[in-house]
Amino acid sequence: MGKHDAKQDPTQAVKEQIEKNSRASLDALSGTAGANVETISEERNSYEDKYLRAAAEIQNMNTRFNKERAQLLHFDGQKVITSILPVLDNLERALQVEVTDANAVQLKKGVEMVFEHLNQALKEANVTEIKSLGVKFDPTVHQAVQTVAADADHPKDTVVSVLQRGYKLHERVLRPAMVVVAN
User: Fold this and answer.
1) Which residue among 66, 91, 94, 120 is the one 20 to 30 A from 50 at the CA level?
2) Using one digit for the tens of pLDDT, what is the confidence trace for 124-182?
3) 3-state DSSP call for residue 14?
4) Coiled-coil annotation: which residues (predicted)?
């Protein structure tokens, strides 16, 4: 039994010696730095707080950036579409002209095709016409340019006629409809 204990004693003795040296080192360090422990702890807490705030700010910036990027993509092409709307108006006016000459009829047919293609392209780009005729006047989507007296056919605050169509891109008004309102 004595030989068997001797084999275990060196391992146990080494463990005890390491533990004893570690405690002595810790005691020596804490003895010399005892006064600084509180200061170091405060500094660590301060740095941790600054780190957490910086990390939160970075997260907020990323969220804001992603939201702005999504909104830009959502309303991509707004400037181009807005500049095309007067062209659409002019094509519509050209189609309202009565023609009798064979060449003029052929030209009108071409203008009609361009008008239809342009309307289809705008529809595919999620541009929709603001429904105005006969609806209640809404200052967020209508621009009243004239008023007329209300009567039995046109109750007060309803759109009587549309002078220029209005359009939206998704939920954003690109151009309000210019309307005549019953008053």
Assistant:
1) 66
2) 989 999 999 999 999 999 999 999 999 888 899 999 999 999 999 988 999 999 999 99
3) helix
4) 37-64
Q: What is the pLDDT of residue 135?
A: 94
State both tokens at 116: 């239809």
CA angle, 12 as apex, 6 and 14 as ends, to 5°? 110
Other Cβ atoms closer than 10 A to 43: 11
- Tokens 């189609």 belong to 95
What are the tens digits of pLDDT across the range 34-61? 557 778 888 888 999 999 999 999 999 9
Phi-psi region at 77: left, alpha or beta (left = phi > 0; alpha = psi -120 to 50): left
CA-to-CA dists, residue 151 to 12, 142, 143, 178, angstroms = 107, 21, 21, 21
Question: Looking up tokens 């957490």, which residue turns up?
Answer: 52
